Amino acid sequence: MKNIAKSATTARFSPRACLAAIGAKLRALDFLAPVKEKLRIHQKTVQHSPLEKLEDALIAILAGAHGLAEINTRLRSDAALQRAFGRRACADQSVVQATLNACTSTNVAQLMQALDAIFRQRSLALRHDFTSGLLILDADITGLPCGKKAEGSMKGYFSTAGIGYGRQMGRPLAAQYEEVVIDRLYPGNLQLTKTLRPMILDAEQTLSLDAEGRKRTLIRVDAGGGSIDEVNWVLGRGYQIHCKDISGAGAEAMAGGVKTWVHDPKRQGRQLGWVELDSQEYVLPVRRLAIRFIKKRGVLQHALLISTLEPKEVISLLGLPIHLLHDRRP
Q: d(Cα 202, Cα 239) in Å, to the nearest integer?
């Protein structure tokens, strides 16, 4: 028995057990293999390689860090979490920051290619069955306030902070699968009218959408992307569209083309009606649903929904009984 080697097992504990389990699964899948294959950062290795330091940054973000400085407090003290992701030790936050500073625009392009490769390996949206229904893409931007000296920081409007400095994060979402197709960072002074087109084109490339795929893809945007120019661009690319008109004054004018108003049973004081005017300003036929409601101060407000969807498609997407197809009410 004395000749039998004994293996010592060290028990380690982590307050982030769920994240540790995710780390073990990602290791088993070799999830970050495309990043290791494509990303080449020209920086010498002393104790940790550039890719290992980037992985430390990723783990810290997943652990809830709001900045790289929290690597030292959230990750370096959590040896069990490091082991779960395959790291035997954690780099200091200053060293990780130096690696990020060493990255070039070429490295950013390499990382984007790697992320596209990971998405294509794992995505359900990429395997969507277009014969069974439309693929829905929700396109929007989220304001990210930051200091005026940060890269890309520009003075603009942010819904949560008003006028200030920051950046805009664009994220097209494959709604049925709850998948973020791409992440794109834009200057803070740009709104959806300026970011919608590049965002859709990048998502289109990642999803490998050809002409037939675009015909079976629905783009949903809020009023920020509902200008005539943006709607016509989306239609010109061959997509379906469902959006809110950007102009309140235009919505009020279109409301004059409603012959029959129907009360909304779910919201008191709101009425809906089909606009029965030609939509000649659009490159393809669209349906327009006018909405009017009284605001708190007694002011009559109008909104306008624009859509290329057929009634049957709307009923299918809402999961409603098919017999409602013949109900002419909004």
A: 14
Angle, CA 88 vertex, CA 75 and CA 71 arms, to 5°: 20
- Closest-CA residue to 95 (of 125, 56, 122): 56
40: buried, middle or exposed (CB in 10 Å: 19+, 13-18, 0-12)? exposed
Q: Where are the alpha helices (DSSP H) in 30-78?
A: 33-38, 50-62
At 191, list the tokens: 């709104």
Buried b (16+ CB within 10 A) or exposed e, 42-52: eeeeeebbbbb
Q: Centre a 10 Å sphere on the Cβ of residue 277 and count the other Cβ atoms it contains.
A: 12
Nearest-5° angle of CA 209, CA 215, CA 217?
Answer: 65
Strands 162-170 and 184-187: antiparallel
Taking alpha carbons only, the member of 63, 177, 183, 185 closest to residue 123 is: 177
CB of 244 closer than 8 Å to CB of 222: yes
How many whole angstroms separate alpha carbon 175 and alpha carbon 183?
15
**pLDDT by residue (tens digit) across 184-240?**
999 999 999 999 999 999 999 999 999 999 999 999 999 999 999 999 999 999 999
